[in-house]
Amino acid sequence: MKYYDIMNSACLDVGLSMNEEIYRKFIQYKDLIKFWNEKVNLTAITDDEQIIKKHFIDSIKIFKFSPLKEAQSIIDIGTGAGFPGIPIKIIKSDVDMILLDSLNKRINFLNEVINKIELKYTTTIHGRAEDFSRKSEYREKCDVAVSRAVANLAVLSELCIPYVKVGGHFIAMKGPSVEDEIQEGKNAVSILGGKIEDIIKIEIEDSDLKHNLVVIKKVKETPNIYPRRAGTAAKKPLK
Ligand code: SAM
């Protein structure tokens, strides 16, 4: 129970609380990350305490956007080793969660995590974000799309906003300085049907890490021409 208190403090900070079952799942997840990381490149962070703070607590802090607690369907775009999607799912066990990534080795890892720690209503998708949001079963179907460390805001908006229902949200997890990125990306957000609603500051317990959540509300449908072909958003970001 070495990390119980710090994780509980992080949960309390976002209006949630930890319990032993949730904590046990986080520790199992940590152990799976360390085991798989020996053969598959999942994360450069391998120390227990750093995994807890930089991956788990950082992900938990997304609940500072409190409507996330009411969401029924969430997609995590470019989830990698499962951040922030798996921590959200461990805490909010009843949500429908989709974890999408273009690297199959990471998807195989996530499938193992889902089985071992018994996460229900969790689907993985191996593929490019731009390809799946064109399909009617995914387009504008999620209450919330989340993403961390995948691309700048202009590019990311084209990958994520098409999945969100009108009235839902896209939450981009960003580093300490977001002002320039917001200036460069706000027109793209608007073209794709979004509106920047809030910037929420995040602090990680017992560290000097300071992050930001960019909260984007979907206010109108995404025009049919978006997303453009896979790779185009990164090569020619919307301006
Ligand atoms: N979100 C995780 C985190 O914060 O630890 C992983 C971040 S990692 C730097 C970026 C991930 O995004 C990679 O796993 C990569 O495969 C995925 N990715 C990048 N572009 C993508 C796209 N167009 N569609 C799906 N996945 C993508």
From TrEMBL:
Where's it found, cell-wise? Cytoplasm
* Keyword Ribosomal protein set for record: no
Q: Name the principal localization, coarsely classed.
A: cytoplasm
Identify a single GO molecular function assigned to this protein: rRNA (guanine-N7-)-methyltransferase activity
One GO cellular component term of this record is:
cytosol
Q: For S-adenosyl-L-methionine, which residues are the binding ones?
A: G78, F83, A129, E130, R148
E.C. number:
2.1.1.-
* InterPro entries the record matches: rRNA_ssu_MeTfrase_G (IPR003682)
User: What UniProt keywords are attached to this protein's entry?
Assistant: Cytoplasm, Methyltransferase, rRNA processing, S-adenosyl-L-methionine, Transferase
Answer whether the UniProt record assigns the keyword Zinc-finger to this protein.
no
Q: Which NCBIfam families match?
A: rsmG_gidB
Q: Which family is this protein grouped under?
A: Belongs to the methyltransferase superfamily. RNA methyltransferase RsmG family.
Role, per record: Specifically methylates the N7 position of a guanine in 16S rRNA.
PANTHER family in UniProt? S-ADENOSYL-L-METHIONINE-DEPENDENT METHYLTRANSFERASES SUPERFAMILY PROTEIN
**Protein's name according to its UniProt entry:** Ribosomal RNA small subunit methyltransferase G
Q: Say which species the protein is native to.
A: Clostridium thailandense
